């Protein structure tokens, strides 16, 4: 089985970290291909960047020409899952949703700990539209941006663990979801300190993708996620029309 | 007062129709500038196209260099309002949301009649995230695509009126919102046949934009819609990096 | 355009203050007529007073014999909008609902700051029935009655700003709605101190009334807000049956 | 124990019918006093009439000078319960809410069958604000007004039974609540034909009032339903200021 | 009228305490029979124990051979009400639901104060499935187990009153429900200290059972609570197959 | 990896069918052990039977003495998952919930098709408590009992496909979940006829169990699903106290 894991931003180091997490999580026999879009932001902290990344990811998928069995979208709260579901036949898993699915399987309620307060809205929206908000006790922000987390992992650990502690104590979360790709590795620290299971989204996405593929199931094409009708789309996929300066 | 009305697709005839509706709806003294993105689909019927249009619209806004007082996004159920709110200071109104606001002011419940069944999901999502779904009796599809509506307005009228009638009779809608830019002009036919008020989204967006500007209010920048943090974004705005072939 | 703004209580000074706010908010060319009922409470802080004011307001509307284009009901959380919608054809705007509509147009979430804790229930109920509660982060009370606000505006400012601050910090409100007619003028103070937009209900109601009138729309009469059927109603409108002692 | 049952309209025949139902439902030892307001509509089918009746009922309660143990408000979907709770200390039961309470005790879901389609909104609102809408499968209208039901009970029986049948078959209601005072006596017909229990609101209100009184409980006065603060209220209670012509 | 009150655990002292509360609450002429199952836990604090008690209670009901008019299930948050409704014809009242019903009749919102934090989930679930969660401000735990409450009533009073105080102050509860059978007697202490009414579930259950019986109503058998179809059930009722060692 | 799949009823043929489905769905290297309780109903169609099966399943788990990695509960809508989560450390998956999880991964909305109308309530409750009801378009019944399905698979296929068709056409379901263990094999028929993916609960449960185990995660023991406190439980596990006649 081959799973394409897509880092929605253009940071190569983040793609590498995601690839490592995905490979560690995958079953023996599963091949992980980690990729990133050709354009867009180096990190995603707002709606403008999220929309742009959604397009860059769809572009990447349309121009990716190897066969594969499933897609995992490694942005936590980013737009785009529905669009990718339309343009491929294989299962498409979003890591925010995957985290919530797994969290609900192992606990009565979960909280997400993410980066900046301004990103909370996007995660709440994604969980709500996916029908996974009901068991969400809270989405909390540790106050550090994606790039901050990348730069100072020790300070990030402290901030995230503190916020997770508030989620457990004040919001009665029984599981913690790490709401940011760069937070990989924090799970051990949190479980050790708080005694609650911690779900890593990339790992969850990979394992759920394996499960859906293993069941022989694919995205329903009967209505909402049917392939786009043929029509004139100017300059699409955009990557084919970008000047060499853009690369 | 100057309002920029953005057709999210690349169809010039649709931009012209939207401009006409917007101008007819505007107060004396309001100038309407109707524009369309440089790239993207000629009509929007699915998530892939909606995401792409959201980016093309943001691109257009970032590269639009005249002063203006408000933005109206003339896509019914398209993505992008939150992103545009981040990158400009003036009020940003989405026409699906504007329709729902006005419908709730004049009736206990409303239904939306849109084009294809597959577009229902996008409209439901937009209304839900905007906190405007509670008084929505239904989102119904007449079964014709945006391009079909454009091509055969008479058949479209018949199909839309029939669906509106079901909304009033079966879902107890007391107001009908026309869920597609190309449906302008249908309102008179529906009101005449069914006796319910009909809200045109473009008209509603323009008048609500005037109201918010008149109140001296702007988008809250305190958290979710704060301007994007400066960071490296590859090839953005994309229009600056497109080859001449793309234009 | 002529808008009738109705103060639901019998305090002449409050009617004057509301008139001033309404006129300042109105577009050039809009005439504001501010009126108050002939009977009922001098301020409204509970359900008994709210029900009585709803009847006194309907009575006023039934006996008001000049032509006009819209009605704005200037009570925040009071009963009566539905009843007035039944007895007039022109649009009827309630200021609590108008505040919420505008707040949702300019921010992801809003809080209402009102007077007494006991009034919170009425505001929550009104927003909920209007389908506008979903984006309401909280309804908070500053602990002062309507009359207290009237008597000591400086202390009121302090109390309201403090409560708005809690709404922004603890409930993540991004817009504040002033939940009491007598709070006009506080908006500048709050915006200066907290950086969030503040919506005044009377101003919002006037501008939204202009928008709906401008769109050529009226209340749907197809079902819930159809005119009352003719029937025997004893002593109605009550004002015609009151003794001279009551005036 | 003495229970005051208040018919919210001014029809003496309806008061008599309500009194009979209430007395038949009451326990031995419970005295029922059925009363009606001095002014207002002879039947209540819309919000204007409902608001007026709420005031007339509060007026009646304020001027009623015998001691009693509980109040039952015999309007199905009418306004006013909260106001009466403020002005008396004893328990106050509304019959729409009482029906729903009892229906939930004996079945998984219930439907209300009321008179006119336009009254559905008021009942839905009352159930929703009371926190009793979740198990409500539907509120259906038989298409006859309160006065129609009064005039032609046989036709009404047929219409109500037909609508109840739809509620059971299509909405999966397991209990039927009769949504109109004048429908007393229909319960036997419906149970015989459909095999589902039927709850009469007046009877339910009386028995629940006995239960609450028997428990030694009274309305919480700690916040929302505290007595109104003393203040100037012009011409209140209105009945004291009505001319003799009004009586 | 004869009401069977079932203590779901096997503690004889708790059965006696429940019997006393039930008898004090019952109307003159109501006979209370308090019983307990033949097997299962001496106190119920988790789902395993709750499921076991549900079966033991159904077993008890199936093998109880005297006639009676209603059943009151005296476990707060325990499973089993639906099962008992299937196997008997008479009304079945659950005390958590009964508390919530009565609380909603006398206040705008209520909180439950229960024993351990881990029991909160079960109570929330029961209220939610019963459609009674909407007016529930919070379910709070005092941190003591059912057995702790039994052993040290003075410490329990202190802990429960402190938690009730938080519910009133922070969650704006206007009524308190005692979420544990062993808490009988605490109501006077809480009302004296906090000024809010306190509902005892056993008392509420008995009085509501009287009301439903008095109305001549029984559980709807039309669908969900129809009697179980005849089929082979191995070793049921279990009590008939238990060895003498089990008794 | 070893997964214990528990048929909650006592039918050996159903256990065999479940075992076969589970084995076909499992990854290479996963061992499936299919078991059934020692007492309880041969099929489960109501709450009484469901409660009894929950206890019989917990009993089975407590007395099962081999090591294993996960539990799959193969009852669709039955009680008991929370209780089993308390008494074991390994992940516990319920098949109704597993179906819904997978359905949400591959489609915007799903419907469940189950056996009898009376079982709809139990499935709706389970999905709701699991926080998975939001994307559920409907739970529909084909009108045949579990035993009917077993006896006449051809007629069952017809009835189930017809109901699935209504779910797709009228409720806009995009995925169908088979709501009954005995329905295995119907998925191919439905997908062929309706073009929508069909999720089998047992298969979904097995694959999700593999995923959670593969992630190294276990049920959160921090609060709700902590192990039961030691206490006196009379005759538990019941199987140890049953007479030989019961076996």
Structural write-up:
The structure is a homohexamer of 247-residue chains. In chain A, 43% of the residues lie in helices and 16% in strands. Chain A is of the alpha/beta class and 247 residues long. Chain A folds into 2 domains: 137 residues, Rossmann fold (3-Layer(aba) Sandwich), CATH 3.40.50.12500; 105 residues, Rossmann fold (3-Layer(aba) Sandwich), CATH 3.40.50. A 4-stranded parallel beta sheet of chain A has the order 2-1-4-5, sandwiched between helices. In chain A, helix 1 packs across helix 9, helix 4 crosses helix 9 and helix 7 packs across helix 8. The longest helix of chain A is centred in the middle third of the chain and has 18 residues. Chains A and B meet through strand 3, helix 2, helix 3, helix 5 and strand 10 of A and strand 3, helix 2, helix 3, helix 5 and strand 10 of B. Strand 3 of chain A pairs antiparallel with strand 10 of chain B.
């Amino acid at each position: 089985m081959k799973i394409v894991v897509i880092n929605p931003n253009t940071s190569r180091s983040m793609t590498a970290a995601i690839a490592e997490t995905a490979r560690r999580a995958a079953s023996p026999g599963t091949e992980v291909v980690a990729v990133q879009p050709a354009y867009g932001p180096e990190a995603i902290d707002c709606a403008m960047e999220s929309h742009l990344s959604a397009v860059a990811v769809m572009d990447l998928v349309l121009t990716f020409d190897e066969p594969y069995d499933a897609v995992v979208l490694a942005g936590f709260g980013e737009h785009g899952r529905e669009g990718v579901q339309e343009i491929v036949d294989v299962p498409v898993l979003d890591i925010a949703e995957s985290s919530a699915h797994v969290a609900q399987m192992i606990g009565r309620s979960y909280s997400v700990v993410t980066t900046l307060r301004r990103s909370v809205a996007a995660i709440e929206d994604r969980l709500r539209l996916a029908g996974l908000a009901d068991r969400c006790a809270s989405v909390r922000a540790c106050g550090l941006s994606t790039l901050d987390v990348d730069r100072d992992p020790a300070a990030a650990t402290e901030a995230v663990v503190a916020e997770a502690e508030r989620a457990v104590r004040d919001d009665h979360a029984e599981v913690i979801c790490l709401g940011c790709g760069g937070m990989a590795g924090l799970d051990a620290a949190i479980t050790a300190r708080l005694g609650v299971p911690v779900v890593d989204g990339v790992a969850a996405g990979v394992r759920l993708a394996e499960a859906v593929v293993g069941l022989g199931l694919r995205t329903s094409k009967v209505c909402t996620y049917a392939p786009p009708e043929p029509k004139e789309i100017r300059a699409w996929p955009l990557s084919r029309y970008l000047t060499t300066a853009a690369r």
